[in-house]
Design goal:
By secondary structure, this protein is an alpha+beta fold. It contains six helices and four strands, in the order αββααβαβαα. The strands form two sheets. Strands 1-2 form a two-stranded antiparallel sheet. α1 (about 5-30) runs antiparallel to α3 (about 95-100). About 35% of the residues are buried.
Length: about 190
Amino acid sequence: MNRAADVAVAGSALIVASPVLALAALAVKLDGGGPVLFRQTRVGKDGGDFELLKLRTMVVGAEAIGAGYAVNEGDSRITRAGRILRRLSLDELPQLWNVVRGDMSMIGPRPTLRYQVERYDARQRRRLDVKPGITGWAQVHGRATLPWAERIELDVWYVEHHSPLLDLKILLRTPFALVGGTYKGASGGWKPPQ
């Protein structure tokens, strides 16, 4: 999507979703205190860093305990409110602000962590040629249930073929993808360096 369309869609979505966002933020706060927002440095277009925003769904400091960056279904670090927010993908709503700010687009490859990007080969780095998105080609083809290499290949395919028609197709398929789950599954997901 172009920048004007991104701002129009994300801004409108923020306005419409603001009551849900407020209730979700209250649920996060009441479920153990701590900050409502989870902020994490991610890699964006052309390899630049930006601060990704999400509603916090795990205990404070979760990245330093248990499985670290990996999150599996039933992870004990996920809060009660976090389970619901993740199931409905409501934890992603603050990323609409990332779109308004210009860090992200509505559609594109999901932003990843620096240590993951450092392991990309030359072809996989192509996914950094566009802004990361809230939803994308890999998301409507299985999200995190897909093996990592397959997700990256779908993202690269998107970079090589993106068009307004493809973006519309992704937007229309996204609601159906949301019910498909967010966890990596037995064979999918990023394998952290040993």
